[in-house]
Specification:
The chain is of the alpha+beta class. It is 24% helix and 22% strand. Strands 4-3-12-7-8 form a 5-stranded mixed sheet. Strands 5, 6, 9, 10 and 11 form a 5-stranded antiparallel sheet that branches. The protein has a two-stranded antiparallel sheet with strand order 1-2. It has a domain of 167 residues: Oxidoreductase, molybdopterin-binding domain (Sulfite Oxidase, Chain A, domain 2), CATH 3.90.420.10.
Length: 273
């Protein structure tokens, strides 16, 4: 028994593709025999299947690696490699672009870690610690300002992606180090901590002695406000904002890489450009 023709004289199977005929490329390529086409299709399916399983197993392997600073050790090594590359590219003469004071903008308030408690600025001092772990000085804001101040305007960059052109006033850290750490043994890093030690960062010697690294007490022509780190904060054009610690309570010179708040949470130590 045959299918009943429709009004046009065709049966329902007339529109079905003829699988015995070669596949024809609509762009004009040479015909491919149907068996070859099926073979290629199976090969493609198996290839993508293997790649998918391999990607999944590789991802699971990385997830199960031992952690180093809250991320898999493999990722930490990649960050360290990136840092090594940038350290080799550092030049003492390399300065970030600066701007005129007229270009300055209001800077966003971002981050309250280490600033949540009220601070009596009249009684505030910064504790300076030497390489051997002993206290060198306890300085108030007048002591810092007595070292002399400079004005600088550069772009402050946040790791979240936003930036503002900011006018800073402060003492170069290199001037501070020359005055208070001149008799110290060679040091490689500086540790900065807030008075409550809730926030802490480590920075390398190159960054700290760069001319565009300041112990800042002024922002856009006015004294720092508590939200921006009064009475004293770090300002540098070489690092993202996560390194520019507000409300400095301790400055320690050290030969060991210091603890760093965001490194412990998966970020890289370099955090710069």
């Amino acid at each position: 028994m045959t299918d009943r023709p429709d009004a046009a004289g065709a049966t329902p199977d007339d529109d079905a593709p003829d699988r015995s005929r070669p596949w024809v490329d609509p762009d004009g390529g040479p015909p491919i025999p149907i068996e070859e086409y099926r073979k290629r299709s199976r090969r493609s399916f198996l290839t993508f299947g293997v790649l998918g399983v391999g990607a999944y197993l590789g991802f699971r392997h990385l997830q199960n690696r031992p952690e180093d600073g809250s991320i898999p050790d493999f990722t930490r090594r990649a960050l360290q490699l990136n840092e090594n590359v940038w350290e080799r590219l550092q030049r003492s003469s390399a300065d970030s672009r600066t701007f005129s004071v007229d270009a300055r903008e209001d800077i966003r308030v971002n981050g309250r870690i280490g600033l949540r408690d009220d601070l009596d600025q009249e009684r505030w001092t910064v504790r300076v610690i030497g390489v051997d772990g002993h206290d060198l000085e306890a300085l108030d804001i007048a002591d810092i300002q007595a070292l002399g101040g400079v004005d600088a305007v550069w772009r402050h960059k946040c790791i979240e992606g936003w930036s503002n052109i900011v006018h800073w006033t402060g003492t170069r850290f290199s001037t501070f180090a020359e005055r208070y750490a001149a008799d110290q043994p060679e040091w490689d890093h500086v540790s900065l901590r807030t008075p409550d030690e809730e926030y802490y960062v480590g920075l390398d010697r190159y960054t700290m002695l760069h001319d565009q690294t300041l112990l800042a007490w002024g922002l856009n022509g006015e004294p720092l406000t508590p939200d921006h780190g009064a009475p004293l904060r770090l300002a540098t054009s070489l690092k993202y904002g996560i390194k520019q610690l507000k409300r400095i309570g301790t400055i320690e010179f050290t030969n060991e890489r210091p603890d760093d708040y965001w490194v412990e949470r998966g970020y890289d130590f370099h955090a710069g450009f």
